[in-house]
Design a protein that fits this description.
With 237 residues, the chain is an alpha/beta fold. The chain has 10 helices and 7 strands. It has a single domain, classed as Rossmann fold (3-Layer(aba) Sandwich), CATH 3.40.50.300. Bound molecules: adenosine monophosphate (AMP).
Amino acid sequence: MASPAGEARGFVAAANPRTPADAVRVIFLGPPGAGKGTQAARLASHLALPKIGTGEMLRTAIARNTPLGQQVHPFMETGNLVPDHLLLALVRERIAEPDCDRGFVLDGFPRTLTQARGLEEMSGDPRAWVVFDFEVPRAELMLRLSGRRWCPSCQATFHLLNDPPKKPDLCDLCGTTLVQREDDHESVVALRLQQYDERTFPLIEYYRTRARMVPIDGHRPMDVVFKELLEAVEVRA
Ligand code: AMP
């Protein structure tokens, strides 16, 4: 993905290796369907940093039927948040891996105040972190979630109207038949949004004074949003 501005400033691993002390940490906050996952993947790839998507990690655990997968499935299929201690253990283990030394992009974590505080214990003072807060009108979120289709094999996501696969119902990347995520069904979405309002929304206030909070109007074309994200992280570079 082209971004001459970012590369010219040397915000690329090979050109400008970072030490753990000045690692880049980016958090994506926002309700389900706001476009966090897509933008986080794009940003992580541009910055050559690992993207840590907790929803994705949990879906992989379910697909592999691991003990963690068995534990979290009942929460996820009903649109509930998975208990904090499971998420904290998952993220603690992941960010201890060497590829996170230069920083990471978090997608879907933290989602509660307990998780936010736990992240600080693992990762230090959040003052230099960039926290993107995606805002999208509720009606648009519902449209995005109901049209979202997902590849159960490689976890790529598409949208029937906004980002359809090249061949109907088939993943562009691996050819697997696309499905609707069980938690994107209308009956489950309402609870996910309620969980967001009650448990994740307070993080906006929490980070406003603790980190560099950047509000993002997510109701715009993907490329426009991405450009804004790049500008925000490059200030930090
Ligand atoms: P996502 O793919 O980010 O929309 O996450 C899908 C589901 O995974 C959520 O509805 C939760 O059930 C679970 N999940 C993902 N991340 C977290 C988290 N940080 N805390 C609690 N549950 C989570």
